[in-house]
Design brief:
It is found in: Secreted. This protein is an alpha+beta fold and about 425 residues long. The protein has one domain: Beta Barrel (Thrombin, subunit H), CATH 2.40.10. It is about 15% helix and about 30% strand. The protein contains seven helices and 17 strands.
């Protein structure tokens, strides 16, 4: 499905949501964000590791994922095993690394997670027929919440803002399980810009900073205009500007991009990246896909609105059982692509669904919309990370699915610790 008028799409969506909201008034708390007792993640020890070589190549498809049937045969992990899987590695922009081991507290109180969910019939997934993705080509909509929370990762993936300085994405976009990918050495994040800077009549001598002036200590690659000037913009961010050679003499490329209505990006350097040890190969072959998530800390805070994390025990109990996410798919360069679909299968840690997606959308934040406890206000929250197309072991055979890693109470606590430095301040409500 190609680009369609966004106003038509949003009008239909708003009508559907309005009907659901009315119906939801007569429903029970199944339409409300559940409240969870979140365990605490405490740091035990941090040790220095040798610098990474950034020698890995980005992965297109993941293989050998332990599917629902496989997971049903796994024993429940012990506390020590969970602590080992939730220990994490931090890599800094200069390539140095540390390993932090953690201790879990209050774990028993947070184990109200539904047990191993039963498997259902499956069908092979192929991308064919009508493409159900929607291109949010109009900048008026792509830079508005919730679409504006989606960011572009310089390694070719997507991500979602979970704080002014933190981006949640897929671990395989940064690390292949053995080493960090080559593109992560100078990792950057592109945030959608709402508008270009206005200039005074003096060609930049009006209010605000001029084009070439930067505040003390500001990094050159933290500014989109500087990126264009010094050639520092990642290759993935250049597509939108190709072929735009017409226009008034003297107009900057960034201004032409803004006037065209197409999204443009402000690229910001990543200060450090944190990846759970459960993702690393050799940690546990059966659960690596369950830990396909990472947090990127940006050098500079963003003014763009971010999206909170949430926890739901079962997608089946949600309105229509649908999930939503937006990303920058490879086949539509520099265009924000939105989709929604129903979740067909779920396990403790993974969501199996048939959302149409292409490479580039990996790392997108999966979200749903529910009511706040005790309120009539509806709120969107991230409940998972889109991992992408994966080959899953099912009864000794390989089948392909689009898979997302769900946010569990333990992962919620870990991500909260990464973002805030203290998981005790976070509540899953």
């Amino acid at each position: 499905m190609g680009p369609i008028p966004v106003c038509v799409l949003l009008s239909v969506a708003l009508c559907v949501l309005a009907v659901r909201s009315v119906n939801a008034e007569d429903e029970d708390d199944s339409y409300t964000w559940p409240q969870w007792n979140v365990p605490l993640v405490r740091e035990k020890r941090t040790v220095r590791l040798s610098s990474t070589a950034f020698s890995a190549h980005p992965q297109g498809e993941l293989h050998g994922t332990c599917g629902i049937e496989c997971q049903q045969g796994l024993p429940d992990p012990s506390v020590s095993e969970l602590e080992r899987l939730l220990s994490y590695e931090t890599v800094y922009e200069n390539g140095t690394r540390t390993l932090t081991t953690v201790a879990l507290q209050g774990l028993n109180e947070a184990q109200a997670w539904p047990g191993k969910l039963p498997g259902h019939s499956r069908r092979k997934r192929e991308v064919y027929g009508v493409d159900t993705r929607f291109t949010i080509a109009d900048k008026q909509f792509s830079t508005k919440y919730p679409f504006s929370t989606t960011v572009k990762i310089s390694t070719g993936c997507s991500g979602v803002l979970v704080s002014p300085k933190h981006v949640l994405t897929a671990a395989h976009c940064i690390h292949d399980g053995r080493d960090y990918v080559s593109g992560a050495q100078k990792l950057r994040v592109g945030v959608l810009k709402e508008r270009s800077r206005r200039r005074g009549k003096g060609g930049g001598k009006g209010r605000g900073r001029g084009r070439g002036r930067k505040r003390k200590g500001e990094e050159e690659n933290d500014d989109a205009d500087d990126n264009e000037a010094d050639g520092g913009e990642p290759e993935e961010g250049k597509g939108e500007r190709q072929g735009r050679r017409k226009g008034r003499k003297g107009r900057s490329r960034s201004r032409r991009s803004a006037d065209s209505g197409q999204p443009s990006f402000r690229w910001t350097t990543v200060k450090q990246t944190q990846v759970p040890k459960g993702w690393f190969k050799g940690g546990s072959q059966n659960v690596s896909a369950d830990y396909d998530y990472a947090i990127l800390e940006l050098k500079r805070s963003q003014k763009t609105r971010f999206m909170d994390l949430g926890i739901v025990p079962s997608i089946k109990k949600l309105p229509a059982g649908r999930i939503h996410f937006s990303g920058f798919d490879d086949d539509r360069p520099d265009q924000l692509v939105y989709r929604f679909c129903a979740v067909s299968e779920e396990s403790n840690d993974l969501l199996y669904q048939y959302c149409d997606a292409k490479p580039g959308s990996s790392g997108s934040g999966i979200y749903v919309r529910l009511k706040e406890p005790g309120k009539k206000q509806w709120k969107r929250k991230i409940i998972g990370v889109f991992s992408g197309h994966q080959w899953v072991d099912v009864n000794g055979a390989q089948q392909d699915y689009n898979v997302a890693v769900r946010i569990t109470p333990l992962k919620f606590a870990q991500i909260c610790h990464w973002v805030h430095g203290d998981s005790s301040i976070c509540k899953a409500t």
